[in-house]
C-alpha cells in the first residue's frame, strides 16, 4: 500500500505541474492580447487626435454662424428705430 500512496503522490505532482504550466501559458496569452489591445487603442486615439484641428475649425465656423443672425437682428432693430423717429 505504501507504494500506491507514493504513486498517487507522483501522479498528483505531475498533474499539478501540468495545470500550473497550462495556467502560465494562458496568462502569457492574456498578456500578449492585452498588449495588442493597448496598441490598438493607442492607434485609435492617434487617429482621433488627428481630427482635433478639424473639430476646432468647425467649432469656430459654428460660432461665427451663430453670431451672424444676432448682428443682422441688431441692425434691423436699429434701422426700425431710426425710421420710427
UniProtKB/TrEMBL annotation:
<keyword id="KW-0995">Kinetochore</keyword>
<keyword id="KW-0132">Cell division</keyword>
<dbReference type="GO" id="GO:0044732">
    <property type="term" value="C:mitotic spindle pole body"/>
</dbReference>
<keyword id="KW-0137">Centromere</keyword>
<keyword id="KW-0963">Cytoplasm</keyword>
<dbReference type="GO" id="GO:0042729">
    <property type="term" value="C:DASH complex"/>
</dbReference>
<keyword id="KW-0493">Microtubule</keyword>
<keyword id="KW-0158">Chromosome</keyword>
<keyword id="KW-0539">Nucleus</keyword>
<dbReference type="Pfam" id="PF08649">
    <property type="entry name" value="DASH_Dad1"/>
</dbReference>
<dbReference type="GO" id="GO:0051301">
    <property type="term" value="P:cell division"/>
</dbReference>
<dbReference type="GO" id="GO:0005876">
    <property type="term" value="C:spindle microtubule"/>
</dbReference>
<keyword id="KW-0131">Cell cycle</keyword>
<dbReference type="GO" id="GO:0072686">
    <property type="term" value="C:mitotic spindle"/>
</dbReference>
<protein>
    <recommendedName>
        <fullName>DASH complex subunit DAD1</fullName>
    </recommendedName>
</protein>
<dbReference type="GO" id="GO:0051010">
    <property type="term" value="F:microtubule plus-end binding"/>
</dbReference>
<comment type="similarity">
    <text>Belongs to the DASH complex DAD1 family.</text>
</comment>
<keyword id="KW-0206">Cytoskeleton</keyword>
<feature type="region of interest" description="Disordered">
    <location>
        <begin position="65"/>
        <end position="85"/>
    </location>
</feature>
<dbReference type="InterPro" id="IPR013958">
    <property type="entry name" value="DASH_Dad1"/>
</dbReference>
<keyword id="KW-0498">Mitosis</keyword>
Amino acid at each position: 500500500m505504501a507504494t500506491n500512496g507514493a504513486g498517487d503522490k507522483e501522479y498528483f505532482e505531475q498533474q499539478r505541474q501540468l495545470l500550473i504550466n497550462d495556467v502560465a501559458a494562458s496568462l502569457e496569452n492574456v498578456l500578449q492580447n492585452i498588449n495588442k489591445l493597448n496598441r490598438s487603442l493607442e492607434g485609435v486615439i492617434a487617429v482621433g487626435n488627428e481630427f482635433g484641428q478639424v473639430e476646432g475649425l468647425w467649432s469656430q465656423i459654428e460660432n461665427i454662424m451663430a453670431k451672424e443672425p444676432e448682428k443682422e437682428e441688431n441692425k434691423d432693430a436699429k434701422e426700425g428705430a431710426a425710421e420710427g423717429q
